[in-house]
Amino acid sequence: MKSDAIKKGIERAPHRSLLRAVGCTEAEMGKLFIGIINSFSEIVPGHIHLREIAEAVKAGVRSGGGVPFEVNTIAVCDGIAMNHPGMKYSLPSRELIADSVEIVAEAHAFDGLVFIPNCDKVVPGMLMAALRLNLPSVFISGGPMLAGHLKTSQGSRTVDLISVFEAVGEVARKQMSEAELKKLEEVACPGCGSCAGMFTANTMNCLTEVLGMGLPGNGTIPAVAERRRQLAQDAGKQITRLVAENLCPRDIVTQQALYNAFTVDMALGGSSNSVLHLMAVAHEAGIDFPLSAVNEIGERTPTLCQLSPAGEYRIEDLDRAGGIPAVMKELNGLLHPESKTVSGKPLGEVMQNAGVVDSDVIHSISNAYSAKGGIAVLFGNLAPEGAVVKRSAVVAEMQTHRGPARVFDSEEEAMQAITRGNIKAGDVIVIRYEGPKGGPGMREMLTPTSLLSGMGRDKEIALITDGRFSGGTRGAAIGHVSPEAASRGPIAALNNGDIIKIDIPNYRLDVELSDKEIASRLAKLAEFEPRVKSGYLKDYTEKVLSASHGAVFRR
Predict the structure, then answer these.
(1) Which CATH number, 3.50.30.80, 3.10.410.10, 3.30.428.10, 3.40.50.970, labels domain 376-549?
(2) C-alpha 350: how far from chain center
(3) Angle value at C-alpha 201, between 198 and 207, nearest 5 degrees
């Protein structure tokens, strides 16, 4: 056992003395030491209940013959961090989470790990840590939030957090009163769990299941369901078996497993952030996964679900309809069924007994919403290294678009122009210097996109950025433009009025400028001056790589 390094032999008497101080008995000294990596937080709705999940995990570990030790890492609520300087810390927290898990696991010589994430950056941060450490590991998320229900004169309407963001735009254009907004605010998030739609957190929890690192149900069983606690106990039992078998994350997360994850992601119409995070996971696993492969997968994978923000269904509906195993079974011929999972069964066996219970929620391949997947990576002279769009949430008339650039060097500048009505139909809003290095931290642009949607303008205005979008974003919102402006990417050369061409069906993002003109403009730019000159964000700016590489650290 790896934990023998802190408990076996005469020279480890001091270590055992300290272990006795935290309650270890003599009998437990000979058992597996399992780290329970919890991201409990009282400020994050998706994490407020994770102590209950941890208790269930610990019960499972004990029944499996192990000794659980709960430790904690940080979590950021992207919704609360949105549209103010706090959002600069969201993506950078992913690297800090991975590093902190590495530190606590190695320092205390755990034999295996159970990870309890839920929200956006915690899931990929913990996945990165699991692959870096390569200790037997299993994931059990806190589960999705239930949708809210707003009573109106027309009846009851199903709502979620994105409904509130978009309602701000409706208030701005006098289509909703502030009193009505307050009623919506009070019911949109009815309790604990990760926000109810197919946003980033739920996308990543579902894909953790597909990668083989979470048990079936990890992504969809509601946070408040008793089945979630049972799954947590099962995860605790399973980790002791994984340690006994020495089945480690790098045995599970292979090239084939990543193809499976991207395939299901396409079928679900998952968050555009999944591309960034899966690329980072591939990096930690030592797997070369080119961005171009994402489009190859998207070409052969149909969109089978339209969950919020693309449609009216929520994660609880997906769970009721059969969950991720049912989606995988529908995609059976497109997946690698031999991929290993923490359940001890190959992926093909996991989905063998699954079935679609509600075909309105999970469509069949023969009745797909679209013949192609929900995410696309665009390339062109404006994005030589790629840009990402959630095309399943883009209306048909905006799948191709040609319009003049309205250029802003920060989210705040763009927000002022939108709220003052200074953006015209047909414009392409460009928000730059918001990338990993330029922001720093690659902020999400949910507020401007939600405002445009709420104002009814997402069908006539496009938005591109070297920053990111929330998984709740809809409309012609193209993010992750790489190289970013701070690295002298072509987006830094844009001027107001330059004509931008968006062609999602052909995976193109271009500006009608010659290569010579772009190079000439870039040569005249002053050296990028970092916006933050102290603290963690200063270090992040100096270390972070392009979004096309997953925005991981240069090591």
Answers:
(1) 3.50.30.80
(2) 23
(3) 80
Contact 443, 434 (CB under 8 A): yes
User: Which residues have a catalytic role annotated?
Assistant: 470
The CATH class given to the 31-145+194-350 domain equals alpha beta
**Rounded to whole angstroms, how far apart are CA atoms 48 and 316?**
19
Nearest Cα neighbor of 135 from 3, 254, 225, 237 is 3
Q: Model confidence over 282-309: pLDDT tens digits?
A: 999 999 999 999 999 999 999 999 999 9
Whole-prediction pTM value?
Answer: 0.96
Residue 273 pLDDT greater than 80, yes or no: yes
Instruction: Reply yes or no on whether the pLDDT at 270 is more than 90.
Output: yes
Angle among Cα 466, 470, 475 to the nearest 5 degrees reads 80
pLDDT of 25-48, one tens digit each? 999 999 999 999 999 999 999 999
Q: What are phi and psi of 286, to 5 degrees?
A: 75, 30
Which of the pair, 114 or 455, is modelled with greater confidence? 114
pLDDT in tens, 491-521: 999 999 999 999 999 999 999 999 999 999 9
Q: ω into residue 448 within 30 of 0, thus cis?
A: no
- The strand pairing partners of 320, in sequence order, are none
Residue 231: φ, ψ to 5°: -65, -35
473: burial class by Cβ within 10 Å (0-12, 13-18, 19+)?
Answer: buried
Say how many CA atoms lie within 13 Å of 249 toward its Cβ: 28
